[in-house]
């Protein structure tokens, strides 16, 4: 059955740094809330500056609510030994609009692919356990156009339905942009369409 849930989990703020040690290698884990892919590069570059002795800064991110896009980056570690284990933790915590990065400082002992997978997975898990995971509601926005005379009726509906006003232009011809919880969209549209003189776009 299609999941019509209109909430999703993401991070409220960047997590504190966590540290996982394995055979003298240090794995520093971080989790960040992001909205676009463009935010990823500056964050990774700042981590590389911070851990200038790190051999690898591996990461994974996922963006989107209904249409998900993701990327996993091994940053020179053996194929799928870092990025994918990190991405697996993003999936396991069911968060989106999230970037998880792990900076590794080599301790002199090779861990092997299995050891790397386990270490990156653990550091990513610790970063997410340490993060502030919040639930957000999927919203859709509409523009309402109406004559000033309709103001009371429109405002009553907004108040009753607890709708959020994103922007407003109050003149003879009024324009309101409202934000509606996804699961209430059809019902709210119907109410406004039923009010004489209100145009919905």
From TrEMBL:
Q: Which residues form a coiled coil?
A: none
One Pfam entry for this protein is Impact_N
List residues of the Impact N-terminal domain: 23-128
InterPro entries, alphabetized: Impact (IPR023582), Impact_N (IPR001498), Impact_N_sf (IPR036956), Ribosomal_Su5_D2-typ_SF (IPR020568)
GO (cellular component) term, any one:
cytoplasm
Q: Name one GO biological process term.
A: regulation of translational initiation
Q: Gene3D superfamilies from the entry?
A: Impact, N-terminal domain
Q: According to its UniProt record, which protein family does this protein belong to?
A: Belongs to the IMPACT family.
Q: What is this protein called?
A: Protein IMPACT homolog
Q: Which organism is it from?
A: Zobellia galactanivorans (strain DSM 12802 / CCUG 47099 / CIP 106680 / NCIMB 13871 / Dsij)
